[in-house]
Design a protein that fits this description.
Blueprint (H helix, E strand, L loop, with lengths): L4 E4 L9 E2 L9 E8 L7 E6 L6 E9 L13 E4 L13 E6 L3 E6 L8 E4 L3 E15 L2 E5 L3 E5 L4 E17 L3 E2 L37 E7 L2 E7 L6 E6 L4 E4 L18 E5 L3 E6 L2 E2 L13 E2 L4 E8 L12 E5 L4 E2 L5 H4 L5 E2 L2 E7 L4 E2 L1 H5 L12
Parallel strand pairs: 9-15
Antiparallel strand pairs: 1-17, 2-3, 3-4, 4-17, 5-16, 6-24, 7-8, 7-28, 8-13, 9-13, 10-11, 10-12, 10-13, 12-18, 14-19, 15-16, 19-20, 20-27, 21-26, 22-25, 23-24, 23-27
Length: about 400
C-alpha cells in the first residue's frame, strides 16, 4: 500500500467533531467518511465532506459492459495486435476488453471524448497504464496529474473523472484483488527496502484538493462486474475539505523502475512491480544493461509455463527475443506450452550491451480467456513463428 498521506483540513483526533466555520449550514461539522479495506482490518483513509456522502436522489440502471469470452477449441499462443483498435467513446465507455478471468481483465482504450459522467468501480481495483497522452485524474482525494508511462493505481470505490490534456492511449488492468507492492520489497516496518527497484519517492499521490461546494444533482456511474448503475446525488461528491490515510490513487512511472541485472540472464520476477491478492502480478520490462558474462545468452531461455498465463504488452523500443511484434502488440503464452526466443535472436543479441525495450507483463495464476474483440485482432500464424 502507499505510505501515509494527508491533504487539506482534518481534526486533531479521528471520529471527533471537525467543526466548520461559525454560521455554516447543516450541523456545524464536516462529515466523516471512513474508506477501509478488508472490512476494517487493513489500510484505510478518513475523508471529511461538506455534506453527508449518502444523499442519493435517485438510482437507475445504466446498462452494462459485456465480456464476450470465446471458447477456444485448442490451446495455443496468441499475438493480438491492438495498435489499430478504434478510437471511440470516453475513458470509460471507450474501453475494449481483450483478456479476462475471474481475477483480472485487460482492456485497451483510445478515447475521443471527455468523460461524460463520474465513475466508480465498486468491486475492482484499476491500474491505468498511460501508453500515450497526459491529463489529470480528479477524485474525492484530489487532483492527480499523469503523463506517458505512468501506472495510475486507483483503489476500488474511488469516484473519479479523467481530464484529458493530450490524446490518451491506455492499457487498463482491472483487478478483483487489492493491488499492492510485492511483499519481498517491503521491510517489517512497512518501508520499501533498500535494493527494491523503486522507493516512496517514486510514488506520487494527489497534489491538491478538488473541493466543489454546490447543491447540484450529480450522477455517478457505478460498475460492479458487468452491471452499471447510475446514482444521482443531491450534491457533488468531491465536496472534500481534507483527508488522511493510506488508501488513495497514486502514480508510478515505468521509467522510474530500477532494473536488476546480473552476469547472466535473470528470471522475470526481478521485473515485478505490483501484485494482486486476486491471483496475478504486474512486471515492468524497462530499459537496462544486458548480461555481462562473456558467454551470456542475452535473451530469455525457453521455458514452460507450468501454472501461469503470461501476457506481454509491448510499449516502446525493440524487444530482443521477439520477431514480428510491434508497439501495442500483446502476446499471450499460456500454461502448458513452452515458449522462448525466436530463431536468430540469440545470435543477434551476442554483442548487444543494452536494451531500450519497455513492456508491461501480467502473469496470471489461472487461465485467461480471450474476448471476441481479441480474437478479431489475433494472428493465427503466431504459434508457428518459432520455425526457422
Amino acid at each position: 500500500m502507499p505510505h501515509y498521506l494527508t491533504l487539506g483540513s482534518i481534526p486533531k483526533k479521528r471520529h471527533t467533531a471537525h467543526r466548520t466555520q461559525p454560521g455554516y449550514r447543516n450541523e456545524g461539522i464536516y462529515y466523516e467518511e471512513v474508506v477501509s479495506t478488508q472490512g476494517f482490518s487493513r489500510a484505510y483513509s478518513i475523508v471529511y465532506h461538506l455534506r453527508p456522502p449518502t444523499r442519493v436522489k435517485r438510482i437507475e440502471p445504466a446498462g452494462n459492459l459485456p465480456l464476450e469470452r470465446i471458447d477456444q477449441p485448442i490451446l495455443r499462443h496468441h499475438h493480438v495486435k491492438s495498435g489499430g483498435i478504434p478510437t471511440q467513446g470516453d475513458p470509460i465507455t471507450g474501453r475494449i476488453p481483450l483478456f479476462t478471468n475471474n481475477d483480472v481483465t485487460l482492456w485497451r482504450c483510445r478515447p475521443t471524448q471527455p468523460q461524460a459522467e463520474l465513475y466508480r468501480n465498486a468491486i475492482a481495483e484499476e491500474i491505468l497504464f498511460v501508453h500515450k497522452g497526459s491529463g489529470r485524474l480528479i477524485t474525492q482525494f484530489g487532483v492527480l496529474p499523469f503523463k506517458p508511462f505512468d501506472y495510475v493505481v486507483v483503489p476500488r470505490c474511488t469516484t473519479y473523472q479523467i481530464e484529458i490534456a493530450d490524446a490518451l492511449d491506455l492499457l487498463v488492468i482491472e483487478s478483483s484483488g487489492t493491488i499492492d507492492y510485492p511483499k519481498r520489497y517491503v521491510n517489517p516496518d512497512g518501508q520499501l527496502k533498500l535494493g527494491a527497484p523503486y522507493c516512496e519517492r517514486d510514488i506520487h499521490g494527489p497534489t491538491q484538493l478538488a473541493c466543489q461546494d454546490g447543491e447540484t444533482d450529480t450522477a455517478i456511474v457505478i460498475k460492479d462486474g458487468t452491471r452499471l448503475t447510475r446514482y444521482v446525488l443531491a450534491h457533488h461528491p468531491f465536496d472534500v475539505v481534507g483527508w488522511d490515510g493510506c488508501v488513495y490513487p497514486f502514480t508510478f512511472n515505468a521509467d522510474d523502475f530500477e532494473p536488476i541485472t546480473g552476469t547472466v540472464h535473470q528470471p522475470p520476477p526481478i521485473h515485478q512491480t505490483f501484485e494482486s491478492a486476486g491471483g496475478f502480478v504486474v512486471c515492468t520490462f524497462a530499459p537496462r544493461m544486458l548480461d555481462t558474462h562473456p558467454d551470456a545468452i542475452k535473451v530469455p531461455y525457453a521455458h514452460s509455463n507450468i501454472e501461469s498465463d503470461e501476457v506481454l504488452y509491448y510499449v516502446r523500443g525493440k524487444f530482443g527475443s521477439r520477431r514480428g511484434v510491434e508497439e501495442s502488440s500483446f502476446t499471450l503464452h499460456p500454461h502448458g506450452i513452452p515458449h522462448g526466443p525466436h530463431p536468430g535472436t540469440i545470435a543477434a543479441s551476442k554483442d548487444v550491451k543494452w536494451t531500450d525495450e519497455l513492456a508491461v507483463m501480467v502473469d496470471t495464476f489461472r487461465p485467461l480467456h480471450l474476448t471476441r474483440q481479441a480474437m478479431e485482432l489475433d494472428d493465427a500464424n503466431y504459434p508457428m513463428s518459432w520455425l526457422e
